[in-house]
Inverse folding.
């Protein structure tokens, strides 16, 4: 008996040692690119070109971030991005959940046909040119609505993938809850709003995170549909323009003052790219911990149907 216990303790010790070592290495591999980018963003641009920056800046400077925020439109573009992310995510999640609930109902005769049509959109697309003419005919060019209705250069407000995830999650809910609500006189919309929607909080948080990251990071729709309206410029689009301009400081119209020119002389495309990456990533990093618990639960329950 003692030999068995000793063997079990040895195996347990070996397993935990291997497990902790593997997870530590995985954490290092995962965190290193972020920490390296953070270090480069705080390092002097000219010194960065020498290489050898790993986890700590060699020559500390704020010039890279000054170059990012030196343009006055960045602050306005930040709030435009926040507005499109919040509003676009809200409507996308609600409408996706409504479609998923409708397709999940057995009494809906065309649920299979509608599901197939949604799945086809994941493999086939009309393309950018037809989408552009559609948006033009709808008089949505250079309007804020184009960010909500057609995010990312023509993609729809409802994601087929997210809809399927929510539909699968709804199938895991007890049917008796929905039937009880209907017996009590609740209509379909009341059942959806009062019963289904609260129970779908984990999977809705999951797709909300997907949608928010997508809305926050996209910039191509601004370039295609709203580039002529400066007040509709998003943060990502402004950062992309700044990154492009760093290849030729003299051609950058925003670096006209002596202070700006001094800043330009201290930055390089590598350093400014790191600063831009951090500025664009921090809002999502701040939001993610609040959704992590729902995110994991939503993937586990909404991704597999037993």
């Amino acid at each position: 008996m003692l030999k068995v216990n000793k063997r079990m303790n040895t195996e347990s010790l070996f397993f935990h040692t291997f497990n902790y070592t593997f997870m530590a290495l995985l954490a290092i591999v995962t965190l290193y690119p972020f920490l390296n980018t953070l270090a480069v963003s705080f390092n002097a641009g000219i010194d960065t070109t020498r290489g050898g920056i790993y986890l700590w800046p060699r020559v500390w400077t704020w010039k890279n971030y000054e170059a990012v925020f030196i343009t006055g439109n960045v602050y306005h573009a930040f709030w435009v991005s926040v507005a499109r992310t919040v509003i676009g995510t809200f409507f996308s999640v609600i409408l996706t959940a409504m479609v998923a609930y409708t397709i999940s109902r057995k009494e809906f005769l065309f649920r299979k046909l509608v599901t197939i049509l949604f799945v086809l959109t994941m493999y086939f697309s009309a393309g950018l040119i037809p989408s552009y003419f559609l948006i033009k005919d709808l008089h949505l060019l250079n309007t804020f609505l184009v960010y909500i209705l057609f995010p990312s250069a023509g993609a729809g407000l409802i994601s087929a993938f997210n809809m399927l995830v929510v539909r699968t999650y709804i199938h895991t809910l007890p049917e008796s809850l929905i039937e009880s609500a209907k017996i009590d006189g609740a209509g379909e919309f009341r059942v959806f709003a009062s019963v289904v929607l609260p129970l779908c909080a984990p999977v809705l948080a999951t797709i909300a995170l997907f949608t928010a990251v997508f809305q926050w990071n996209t910039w191509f729709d601004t370039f295609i549909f709203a580039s002529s309206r400066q007040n509709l410029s998003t943060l990502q689009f402004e950062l992309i323009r700044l990154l492009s301009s760093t290849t030729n400081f003299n051609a950058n119209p925003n670096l006209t003052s002596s202070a700006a020119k001094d800043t330009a002389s201290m930055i390089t495309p590598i350093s400014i790219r790191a600063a831009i990456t951090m500025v664009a990533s921090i809002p999502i990093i701040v939001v993610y911990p609040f959704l992590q618990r729902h995110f994991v639960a939503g993937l586990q329950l909404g991704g597999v149907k037993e």
Observations:
- Residues 72-245 form a domain with the MetI-like fold fold (CATH 1.10.3720.10).
- The longest helix spans residues 2-41.
- Residues 255-261, 302-306 have pLDDT under 50 and may be disordered.
